[in-house]
Design a protein that fits this description.
Structural class: alpha/beta
Distance between the termini: 57 Å
CATH superfamily of the largest domain: HUPs
Helix content: 40-55%
Radius of gyration: 23 Å
Oligomer: single chain
Number of helices: 19
Number of strands: 13
């Protein structure tokens, strides 16, 4: 790919907002190595492929020699960012934040060279901040600016509470950029307000304002925004068969968006795929191609082909997988055992149980108090199995 095409792909593919493009292009063409920031609030323990859209863009920048910097919201996650929320978010303890963050490194390593990533924790500066510095920061914004945000305005109109601590989140995120000397901050479209606040804060502290890049949102398997709380996610560390199977469940109309956002398929090829779909290509065949591409991105093409073969045996031939793993555990409720064996939350396990998505020895279990007290075959959903061995 020519350097002009590389730059265009870097600045356009999956990009929703780019502020200010002319400034960023000038920096890139000058050969300057940029410091590029992504904030991670570890309010959950898993990264889904919707969030990974930003990570793959960072991979492009990293491959070009730029410095990727992460800031873990070890302080701000205790407040909770409500950028995409219409109710107050529960404040997390520092212990909960630390526990959620433990699994992030391995998932991030699927996409980025973590040996070349700088990692920051914003608790390192906020926990030491003096009140005079804090008041200097808060003086940069007005209450009107903070409460005019769409989600805050709707909550105020509906007579729902807006915590004062919530209105501080954007300026705290902006101060992260000062500490990290950020040239470009990336994030979802819901982060635009926060990242623009960073430009204001940096100016006040004598730094050149950062450029801002946001990305298109990837819908979940059910067509809604991909969200762990809705159970419609494909996670970057899903097992290949499970990942393949989840992709095969997405709505047909989402196929082009998934090719654009969740694979590295060239845009001209995607255009041909869209054309073929409009002319009557079978969605199942196109979706199978998509599923292979998604799995190959996080594993490799050989593993993707095996996942496809196993999926076809299981769902077309009605066969169970031949390599079901054994999970050893003590006697416990079906909810507890499912959560441990499949690494899902107890709330997710309960949701699946009420939907008939848990089977023991091919029998549907709907009693949350059911005790697993003997060796058995445990099935979660349509694709996931574990041989349970009671120790």
């Amino acid at each position: 790919m020519k350097s002009k095409d590389i730059l265009n792909d870097l600045l356009t593919r999956n990009v929703e907002d780019l502020i200010v493009r002319s400034e960023l292009e000038k920096k890139l063409k000058s050969g300057k190595k940029l410091r590029i920031k992504l904030g991670i609030d570890p309010t959950g323990s898993k990264i889904h492929i919707g969030r990974a859209v930003a990570l793959w863009k960072l991979r492009q920048f990293q491959d070009l020699g730029h410095q990727i910097t992460f800031v873990a919201g070890t302080f701000t996650a205790q407040i909770g960012d409500t950028s995409d929320k219409f109710s107050e978010r529960k404040m997390l303890s520092s212990e909960e934040v630390a526990e959620n963050f433990k699994s992030y490194h391995g998932q991030l390593s699927k996409i980025l060279d973590m040996d070349r990533v700088e990692m920051f924790h914003n608790g390192d500066w906020f926990e030491k901040m003096q009140l005079d510095e804090f008041f200097k920061l808060t003086s940069l914004f007005t209450i009107q600016q903070m409460t005019e945000r769409d989600n805050f305005a709707k909550r105020i109109e509906a007579n729902k509470p807006v915590g004062l601590h919530e209105t501080l989140y954007a300026l705290l995120q902006g101060y992260d950029s000062v500490q990290m000397k950020t040239d470009l901050e990336v994030g979802g479209t819901d982060q635009l307000f926060n990242m623009l606040a960073g430009r204001t804060v940096q100016k006040a502290y004598g730094q050149d304002p950062q450029n801002v890049m946001t990305f298109h949102i990837l819908e979940g398997t059910d067509g809604r925004k991909m969200s762990t709380s809705w159970g419609n996610c494909i996670f970057v560390d899903d097992e290949p068969l499970d990942m393949y199977g989840k992709v095969m469940t997405i709505r047909d109309e989402l196929i082009p968006a998934y090719f654009k956002l969740a694979t590295d398929t060239p845009m001209d090829v995607i255009a041909q795929i869209e054309k073929g779909m409009s002319l009557g290509d079978k969605p199942r065949d196109t979706k199978a191609s998509l599923a292979r591409a998604v799995v190959a991105r996080y594993y490799d093409s050989k593993i993707a082909l095996k996942a496809e073969k196993d999926w076809e045996k299981q769902f077309i031939g009605g066969e169970k997988p031949s390599d079901i793993e054994t999970f050893k555990t003590k006697i416990g409720s079906v909810i507890d055992v499912v959560a441990l064996a499949f690494d899902v939350s107890k709330s997710e396990a309960r949701r699946l149980l009420t939907q008939g998505g848990i089977k023991i020895n091919d029998e549907v279990i709907k009693d949350a108090e059911y005790k697993i007290s003997a060796d058995c075959l445990l099935q979660l959903g349509k694709r996931r199995y574990k041989n349970i061995e009671i120790s």
